[in-house]
């Protein structure tokens, strides 16, 4: 293997390493906020307006929390603040306990979801007890059944008396979007004594987490979709924990790896959207909240409607709100599926691979097997290029005797050595880059598979091998040490070790066929150094991703062993025949 080949391989590995690290680890899949007219303004927490003091009149008949059950939800309502203190997803279980996933994850404030504020000071919600009624089996215009939960309470403020109502309309089927209506009406003929109010989603989105620092693990991010297009924007610029979007939004969301809460202002005349993110809470390592601030209240009545999706990040559950006939409330064009993660510029490839993976799963209902079948398919697709690369490796091995002659002859003249090697490669029709091309072709496939196998919801809790790989969405932890290993932690994973060993063996096969005594240092680094670097990068990667890459390595090893065994002798014989023919032609010319 000459210097140019070494450089080509090193550059290929660097591209893969840097690309994977930057695109997948340091900057997980997201949309970048570049050209947009939407204004993001920082609102320091200490500059928030004070809330208007409200005094509840009359009394609440029932102050006990209650639960509403649907096919999808078990929702805990609290008359205090007409709020929700629990949203359990009945069809989605915790992988460790088997209990329904809880989406309401409270911070140290302990505040419920969907509390009202009479200004934008979020420390003092309207938490008086509301009277309520619950109506089940209410038929909508399109014949669907919903449960209606209506809260109401009378308040006095600034010499005026008015009523606040908050209503929840919840589908009784397995949908994950419900409506929240906030209405206010004067009871004494005076205008409503509020300039604005805020509807907040204060809790963090569940399920519970202990750490958000693992690049492959859980995360919490905040997004919004621009109102006039389908571009999703990340909210990243917080000052004192707050950021505000002054223009209308299509929706706002707080999202984790597998679950999300999305708020859609459906019928709200004037509003701004505020986001809160803090990392100094005594209960949670990170808090995320978002608020809709209803502005310019005037007159004696208002009625505003919001849609909230609270559920899994599944395209099948999200995209039904793009077509009116597909959902209970006949909503259309919400584009909630834009909250889904993708590998950015390779989203189209990720979608194709996901479709193929699901087909394999339908044939054999085990996602580990489906990943293996997908790996085999990908290998077959790139086989023409892989074959050329392996043939090139075998030819290089067959050329080793001649290469050694050139190295010996031009040991003191590197330029002449490289020129002679280049001439030999040209004569034999060998491209030193041939063995690197398959690696470069796999780069976009690897990035797309990283996004797919790291965030594909169906892999959450998907078992491959009982007792070893019970969940393909997380590392294959076999046991936990009572101490931490630097850079690795206290969990022991087997797949990264198998993957690294397979990568080293694969590199050694290539090196054996192309050994250069003058460049042993570089070859040693390629054989051991790069696999070790990948070991640390991928140690905490989801086992589904490592399963793909490990199987790909084993297939490549078997192919290379076969090629080295069958073709090296063939190419050596062909080279020998060419050399003998060349000598015979020389002798013939000499006789003449």
Question: What attributes characterize this protein structure?
Answer:
alpha+beta, 592 residues, 10-stranded antiparallel β-sheet, disordered N terminus, 2 domains, Beta-galactosidase, Chain A, domain 5
The helicity comes to 25-40%
Q: In angstroms, what is the radius of gyration?
A: 32 Å
Residue share in β-strands: 25-35%
User: What's the architecture of the largest domain, going by CATH?
Assistant: Distorted Sandwich
Ranges where pLDDT stays below 50 over 5 or more residues in a row are 1-49, 512-518
Distance between the termini: 39 Å
Mean pLDDT: 82
Q: What is the fold-level CATH name, i.e. the topology of the largest domain?
A: Beta-galactosidase, Chain A, domain 5
Q: Biggest sheet, open or closed, and with what strands and sense?
A: 10 strands, antiparallel
* Secondary structure category: alpha+beta
- Per CATH, the class of the largest domain reads Mainly Beta
How many individual domains? 2
Count of helix runs: 11
**Number of extended strands:** 24
The dominant shape is elongated
């Amino acid at each position: 293997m000459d210097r140019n080949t070494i450089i080509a391989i090193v550059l290929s590995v660097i591209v893969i390493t840097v690309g994977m690290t930057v695109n997948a680890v340091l900057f997980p899949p997201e949309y970048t906020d570049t050209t947009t007219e939407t204004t993001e303004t920082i609102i320091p927490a200490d500059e928030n307006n004070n809330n208007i003091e409200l005094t509840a009149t009359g009394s609440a008949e029932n102050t006990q929390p209650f639960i509403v059950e649907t096919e999808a939800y078990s929702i805990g309502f609290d008359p205090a603040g007409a709020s929700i203190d629990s949203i359990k997803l009945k069809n989605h279980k915790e992988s460790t306990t088997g209990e329904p996933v809880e989406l309401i994850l409270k911070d140290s404030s302990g505040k419920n979801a969907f509390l009202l504020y009479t200004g934008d000071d979020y420390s003092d919600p309207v938490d008086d007890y509301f009277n309520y009624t619950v109506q089940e089996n209410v038929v909508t215009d399109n014949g669907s059944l919903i449960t209606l939960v209506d809260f109401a309470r009378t308040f006095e403020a600034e010499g005026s008396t008015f009523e606040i109502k908050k209503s929840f309309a919840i589908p009784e089927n397995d949908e994950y979007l419900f409506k929240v209506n906030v209405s206010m009406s004067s009871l004494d003929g005076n205008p409503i004594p509020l300039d604005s109010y805020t509807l907040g989603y204060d809790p963090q989105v569940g399920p519970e987490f202990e750490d958000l620092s693992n690049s492959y693990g859980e995360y919490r991010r905040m997004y919004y979709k621009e109102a006039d297009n389908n571009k999703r924007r990340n909210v990243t610029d917080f000052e004192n924990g707050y950021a505000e979007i002054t223009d209308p939004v299509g929706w706002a969301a707080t999202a984790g790896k597998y679950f999300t809460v999305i708020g859609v202002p459906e019928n709200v005349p004037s509003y701004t959207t505020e986001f809160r993110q803090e990392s100094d809470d005594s209960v949670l390592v990170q808090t995320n909240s978002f608020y809709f601030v209803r502005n310019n209240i005037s007159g004696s009545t208002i009625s505003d409607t919001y849609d909230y999706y609270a559920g899994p990040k599944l395209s099948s559950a999200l995209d039904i709100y793009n077509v009116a006939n597909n959902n209970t409330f006949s909503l259309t064009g919400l584009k909630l599926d834009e909250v889904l993660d993708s590998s950015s510029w390779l989203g189209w490839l990720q979608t194709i691979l996901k479709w193929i993976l699901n087909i394999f799963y339908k044939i054999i209902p085990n996602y580990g097997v489906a990943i293996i079948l997908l790996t085999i398919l990908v290998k077959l697709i790139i086989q023409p290029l892989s074959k050329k690369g392996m043939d090139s490796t075998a030819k290089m091995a067959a050329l080793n005797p001649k290469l050694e002659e050139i190295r010996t002859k031009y040991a003191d003249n590197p330029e002449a050595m490289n020129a002679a090697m280049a001439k030999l490669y040209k004569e034999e029709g060998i491209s030193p880059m041939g063995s690197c091309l398959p690696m470069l072709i796999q780069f976009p496939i690897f990035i797309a598979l990283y996004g797919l196998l790291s965030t594909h919801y169906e892999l959450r809790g998907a078992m491959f091998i009982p007792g070893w790989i019970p969940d393909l969405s997380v590392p294959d932890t076999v046991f936990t040490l009572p101490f931490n290993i630097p850079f690795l932690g206290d969990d022991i994973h087997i797949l990264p070790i198998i993957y690294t060993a397979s990568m080293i063996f694969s590199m050694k096969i290539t090196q054996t066929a192309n050994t250069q005594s003058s460049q042993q240092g570089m070859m040693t680094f390629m054989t051991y150094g790069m696999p070790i670097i990948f070991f640390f990068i991928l140690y905490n990667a989801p086992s589904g991703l490592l399963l793909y890459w490990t199987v790909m390595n084993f297939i490549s090893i078997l192919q290379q062993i076969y090629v080295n065994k069958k073709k090296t002798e063939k190419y050596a014989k062909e080279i020998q025949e060419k050399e003998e023919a060349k000598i015979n032609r020389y002798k013939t010319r000499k006789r003449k």
